[in-house]
Specification:
Blueprint: H1 9-21, E1 27-33, H2 39-52, E2 56-60, H3 72-78, H4 84-87, H5 91-100, H6 113-128, E3 133-137, H7 145-155, E4 163-170, E5 189-193, H8 199-210, H9 216-226, H10 230-243, H11 259-268, H12 272-283, H13 294-302, E6 306-308, E7 314-316, H14 319-328, H15 331-342, H16 348-357, H17 364-379, H18 383-395, H19 402-418, H20 422-435, H21 440-457, H22 459-473, H23 477-490, H24 495-508, H25 516-532, H26 539-551, H27 557-563, H28 575-586, H29 590-607, H30 610-627, H31 630-647, H32 650-666, H33 670-687, H34 690-706, H35 710-727, H36 738-747, H37 751-768, H38 771-789, H39 796-815
Parallel strand pairs: 1-4, 1-5, 2-3, 3-4
Antiparallel strand pairs: 6-7
Helix pairs in contact: 1-2, 5-6, 6-7, 8-10, 9-10, 10-11, 11-14, 12-13, 12-14, 15-16, 16-17, 17-18, 18-19, 19-20, 19-21, 20-21, 21-22, 21-23, 22-23, 23-24, 23-25, 24-25, 25-26, 25-28, 26-28, 28-29, 29-30, 30-31, 30-32, 31-32, 32-33, 32-34, 33-34, 34-35, 35-36, 36-37, 36-38, 37-38, 37-39, 38-39
Length: 816
């Protein structure tokens, strides 16, 4: 493998096999071991082997000071990629990567981590079409978390593509606390655990590195003291040679047996100026000559402590040396260095981190810098870094500065909620609601908490929080409008209450006044509430909302924070277009619904938003099921299942089970249809989901009816009907199961109940004038009318109702 590596023949052979297998599909190789055991040596040998085989290598060698620097690793990995590669990416991915890689002059684009990860995945796929690709990371335990999330996202989505991951990781100290390889595909993850070198291998290392042959007794003493760790052994051997003292084979070595002390002594033999320059370099994330004493660093390079690459970067020859330099310096001196660096670095995030390390006391300058850095990290699509920075800002804020501390605690809760961490967001916001006095701040905290609660406890609890927030909001009409709109969007179980909140939001956000997106938000709440109440799709309301959305850019952090908790927002799919697609599905406008939902699916893919992708796929599968395109429906369900397996979204898995059960029933696969529907019932009941429980019983009833189990069908459909009745929805699209229910009622001889159900369903269908619903009602009329003709004792009124229903629905059925 090029340069000679001693004592690692088996490990190098395994690395060669890994490289040779890359053209056949994706895999990962993890080289593990303690500090100094030789991971980098094996890692570098593997890279040379990859280069010899024509593999494209994207590499990064992060250090301890880069651990918390946003996308430092991603900058390394993509730094050598031809800029032309990025031009072929979809616009959302290209813009997100430009933001993450600091290619924009200012934060004029708000990136999200999903789009960055999807863009990185696309770049790898483009490169893999030309040659196998190897992502190589040394000391991966120091990789920044945002880069790891992006890398993990990509690796988990490769299968047959020739893309591999080669990583070296320390298995002591901080190793494994932040980077978890267990999330990668286990069947394609290989591991090499490095063990201590043998005595013979150490002999060869000393001869090659130091040009010296130690006698066997001394060699044994070094091996015993170092435990066979090649780096420690080399430092011991070097210290022995530099001391010039004779070594007794039976006595103790006249050098420290602690590696940290040994390295510290080596560093202290350098001139004071070199030691100071090394301390500055160890405190920097990416030290370069332009920020250091060149002459002093040159002496350290001559001593083998650092090396300088062709780009002027100063690299420690081993991470343990950098750690020894930093930790051996007095705390006061380290803080002084960080304060000096804060005034010299260009990155807002790096400046803030240096300021934070310069003091451990509350400091408003430091707190403001941390908040500014968090804003920048969010704009670059690094929510984890933003959360850490704001939490640190809270710690650096004086406790008696209650206004600033409250604002920063609220910001922390907001970022946690938007980053999809409802448990921590709930804890932060609940504490804030408890500690803050009544007023607009507490109202906003309750509103944000209501969105988080909606994810965990459902609409009832979240709406109660909104109604409590209205009291705190006082006379702030804009805030009250936002709260009313949020309450309406989250409330699904009482159309009257939903409509009340929507109407109040509209009145408080009048046309032509204030934020156009707030007015659009209120309009969408109203359109949704009107549909739930049975008034159909209000096209003029959607037209006005779409015009308002187009009148001002949405992709700013402020607007995303305010509105994206209930709506995933993209530049190419607006909140109004997404809601319109959903309502058109309920309204059986299948072609129009398909167009909107397909656009949403493509945008979700481009942005890497798998949560929204799962919703889109479930709805598209429903569209194709109803349209009779069963193969396409099954394909959407397969894609949905793959997303759910990656993300673990319970609500999406439940929706997939329901649609799959209906499809299986239609195709005659009764056993699998029943099993899927029963599992859906179990999941919904266990979670306490009211709406989903109704749907589950309705689908299970449909399956039983298909199987000819009329009594079982009626039992399940009765349960669905009772629960839907409690919700009180007014649109017939929500009670499509009613035709099956009527059939089960007629078949079990309960004609009065069948007539009542038919009258209710037909009334809703007639109210919205929907042809498909009227046709479905007509289908239900025939068995009722036939049975009534055989039961003359039933009232003439009921007969006439049925005949009128059948007459009215026949033309609708033909047009449908």
């Amino acid at each position: 493998m090029g340069e000679v590596v001693f004592g690692r023949e088996a490990e190098l052979a395994e690395a060669r096999r890994f490289i040779d297998a890359l053209p056949r599909g994706s895999a990962s190789l993890l080289i593990e071991g303690t500090a100094g055991i030789g991971k980098t040596t094996v890692w570098q040998a593997a890279l040379r082997s990859a280069a010899e085989r024509g593999v494209s290598v994207l590499s990064s060698r992060p250090g301890p000071s880069e651990t918390r620097l946003t996308y430092a690793g991603l900058l390394d990995l993509l730094g050598t990629v031809d800029p032309a590669t990025f031009r072929d990416l979809p616009a959302p991915q290209r813009k997100a990567l430009d933001a993450a890689l600091l290619r924009l002059d200012k934060d004029d684009h708000v990136a999200d981590q999903r789009s960055i990860a999807t863009g990185f995945l696309s770049v790898l796929r483009i490169l893999a079409r030309l040659s196998p690709v190897l992502i190589a990371i040394d000391d991966v335990q120091w990789l920044d978390v945002p880069t790891w999330h992006v890398l993990e996202f990509a690796i988990r989505r490769f299968d047959t593509e020739p893309v591999g991951l080669l990583a070296a990781m320390r298995m002591d100290g901080d190793a494994g606390s932040r980077i978890d390889f267990r999330s990668l595909p286990k069947d394609r993850l290989h591991e090499i655990r490095l063990r201590p070198l043998t005595l013979a291998a150490l002999h060869e290392v000393f001869r090659a590195q130091l040009g010296h042959n130690f006698t066997r007794p001394i060699l044994v003493r070094i091996e015993q003291t170092s435990g066979g760790n090649p780096f420690f052994a080399l430092e011991l051997a070097r210290a022995i040679l530099e001391s010039g003292e004779p070594v007794s084979p039976s006595g103790r070595l006249s050098v420290p047996e602690d590696l940290a002390e040994l390295l510290t002594r080596r560093i202290r033999r350098l001139p004071a100026a070199s030691q100071d320059a090394l301390l500055v370099a160890s405190a920097m994330s990416q030290p370069t000559l332009d920020l250091l004493d060149v002459e002093a660093i040159g002496r350290a390079e001559h001593a083998g402590v650092v090396r300088i690459d062709e780009r002027g970067r100063v690299l420690f020859t081993h991470p343990l040396i950098a750690s020894a330099v930093y930790t051996s310096a007095p705390l006061a001196r380290r803080r002084q260095v960080h304060r000096q660096l804060a005034a010299r670095v260009k990155s807002a995030e790096e400046r803030a981190r240096h300021l934070a390390l310069a003091t451990n006391e509350p400091d408003e300058e430091v707190a403001r810098a941390l908040v500014e850095a968090a804003h920048s990290a969010r704009a670059r699509g690094a929510p984890d870094a933003a959360i850490e920075l704001v939490a640190l800002a809270c710690e650096r804020t004086a406790p008696d500065d209650r206004a600033a501390l409250t604002a920063r605690r609220f910001q922390l809760g907001r970022i946690l909620s938007s980053a999809g961490d409802p448990q921590r967001a709930n804890a932060v916001l609940s504490d804030l609601v408890r500690d803050v006095p009544p007023g607009p701040v507490r109202a906003r905290a309750k509103l944000l908490l209501s969105f988080v609660t909606d994810w965990t406890d459902g609409g009832k609890a979240s709406t109660a929080l909104c109604e409590s927030a209205l009291i705190d909001a006082g006379a702030d009409d804009e805030l009250r409008a936002e709260i009313h709109a949020g309450a309406s969007r989250m409330w699904d179980h009482d159309p009257e209450r939903k409509s009340y909140h929507a109407q109040a939001a509209l009145e408080l956000a009048p046309r032509g006044v204030g934020d156009p997106h707030l007015r659009a938000y209120a309009l969408l709440a109203s359109a949704e509430a009107q549909f739930y109440a049975g008034h159909g799709i209000l096209g003029d309301v959607f037209d006005e909302a779409a015009t308002l959305e187009a009148s001002a850019p949405f992709e700013t952090l402020d607007r995303i924070d305010r509105y994206s908790h209930t709506m995933h927002v993209y530049s190419d799919v607006t909140p109004s277009s997404r809601l319109l697609g959903i309502l058109r599905l309920y309204a059986d406008e299948l072609d129009a619904a398909r167009a909107e939902l397909e656009r949403d699916r493509r945008a979700s893919l481009d942005h890497g938003d798998e949560a929204q992708l799962a919703r889109s796929l479930g709805r598209l599968a429903t569209v194709e099921l109803r349209a009779g395109n069963w193969q396409l429906a099954d394909r959407h369900l397969g894609d949905l299942q793959a997303v759910v397996q990656r993300t673990g979204q319970g609500i999406a898995r439940h929706r997939g089970l329901l649609v799959k059960s209906q499809l299986d029933a239609v195709l005659g696969h009764v056993a699998s249809a029943r099993a899927g529907a029963q599992e859906a019932v179990r999941i919904a009941n266990a979670a306490g989901w009211i709406w989903e429980t109704c749907d589950s019983y309705a689908v299970l009833g449909f399956v039983e009816l298909t199987a000819g189990n009329v009594a079982g069908a009626r039992e399940q459909l009765d349960r669905a009907d009772e629960r839907y009745g409690r919700i009180g929805l007014g649109d017939p699209g929500f009670i499509r199961y009613q035709a099956d229910h009527i059939e089960s009622l007629v078949s079990t001889g309960d004609l009065p109940a069948a007539e009542a159900a038919l009258e209710r369903f037909e009334g809703q269908a007639r109210a919205v004038g929907r042809a498909s619903a009227l046709a479905l009602a007509a289908r239900s009329c025939s068995p009722v009318a036939a049975t009534l003709r055989e039961r003359p004792r039933l009232s003439k009124t009921r007969v006439s109702i049925t005949r009128r229903s059948r007459s009215r629905s026949s033309s609708a059925e033909r047009s449908s």
